């Protein structure tokens, strides 16, 4: 079975959902998981005004209460030059998926921790290259891909894929079978609740496969 995970490195609820997804990967190694950076606020010019900081803190407190994930509310990344543009971090994830695709979830988690716990500006290419280096990607190799037109277009295709699939918020888990999109979960869920959905889906798909043969979703998003 293949699941499509639509996320954004700068989405706080996705950060809260990260431990749940880690448990999913550990408990269901047979499930193929494709991570797609769907574009929470790409190319945004939003600065961290007092009002927007209050807005973020409200969500961060809720995420902490639901997930237990830690936050640094000092928001050291919030300089005058900072904009809440999620395209660079999404593009960085696309780079890792191109160079070392098996490390994409690890890199996503590194970006989330850097941003929410350490207050690093993950809209900054130098910061992102440093995180990539931690998983063995040379900075010069990272920048070669990160600054390429091909990678910028790949990132935009991920955003388009999100819209094509009808994703209305992050995090979202979907199946895509023969062009049909089925929502597994939209928004934060505990692992216990998600497990119920996954087990039911596995049973349903097992019965369907035995009756009709396996379905294929390759190329649905062309990401």
UniProtKB/TrEMBL annotation:
<dbReference type="Pfam" id="PF13743">
    <property type="entry name" value="Thioredoxin_5"/>
</dbReference>
<protein>
    <submittedName>
        <fullName>DsbA family protein</fullName>
    </submittedName>
</protein>
<dbReference type="InterPro" id="IPR036249">
    <property type="entry name" value="Thioredoxin-like_sf"/>
</dbReference>
């Amino acid at each position: 079975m293949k699941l499509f995970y639509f996320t954004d490195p700068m989405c706080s609820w996705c950060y809260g959902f990260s431990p749940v997804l880690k448990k999913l990967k550990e408990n269901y190694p047979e499930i193929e998981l494709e991570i797609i950076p769907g574009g929470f606020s790409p190319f945004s010019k939003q600065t961290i005004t007092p009002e927007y900081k209050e807005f973020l803190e409200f969500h961060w407190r809720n995420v902490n209460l639901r997930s237990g994930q830690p936050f640094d509310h000092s928001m050291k990344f919030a300089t005058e030059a900072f904009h809440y543009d999620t395209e660079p971090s999404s593009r960085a994830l696309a780079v890792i998926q191109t160079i070392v695709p098996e490390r994409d979830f690890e890199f996503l988690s590194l970006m989330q921790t850097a941003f929410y716990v350490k207050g690093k500006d993950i809209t900054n290419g130098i910061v992102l290259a440093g995180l990539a280096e931690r998983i063995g990607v040379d900075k010069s190799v990272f920048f070669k891909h990160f600054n390429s037109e091909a990678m910028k277009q790949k990132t935009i295709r991920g955003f388009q894929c999100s819209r094509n699939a009808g994703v209305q918020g992050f995090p979202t888990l979907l199946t895509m079978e023969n062009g049909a999109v089925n929502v597994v979960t939209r928004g934060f869920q505990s692992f216990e609740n998600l497990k119920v959905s996954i087990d039911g889906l596995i049973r349903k798909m097992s019965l369907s496969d035995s009756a009709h043969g396996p379905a294929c979703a390759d190329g649905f998003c062309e990401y």
